[in-house]
Amino acid sequence: MRRLFTASADFFAVLVFAFIGRMNHAEGLSLHGLFSTTWPFALGAAIGWSLAYLYAHMRADHGFDYPFHPERVFPDGVLVWVGAVAIGMILRQQFHQGVALSFIIVATIVLGVFLLGWRAARMVLTRRRQTVTT
């Protein structure tokens, strides 16, 4: 259940990023337009998830018994963020969707805040809850 929530939160973060970007550039909110803006970054985030999963298992001493925690900020969240931005930009460039330097900077910052921000907030709330109960 935790992984489903985390994947949903990441997809929602990318979707909100695309929605805000389309609104700021008056590109309209058609389903096709929103999909065309979202998919490169969503696929990049999914690849980041895969890298985080592989990294978790590479760190395991005994094969595949290391717990995968995609809700963590580091390293999992950072890998998802880097995947979303790097792969997203590569796909946008390959499909001629535009990759201006200013867009790379803004996307890096906004996706970082969105993809790492909810993880950091969850971490703080979890620690606070644990402190209260002990």
TrEMBL record:
Give the source lineage, highest ranks first: Bacteria, Bacillati, Actinomycetota, Actinomycetes, Mycobacteriales
| Record's protein name | DUF3054 domain-containing protein
Note one Pfam family from the annotation. DUF3054
Transmembrane domains' residue ranges: 34-56, 77-95, 101-121
Report the superkingdom from the record: Bacteria
Q: Does the keyword Transmembrane helix apply?
A: yes
Keywords from the UniProt entry: Membrane, Transmembrane, Transmembrane helix
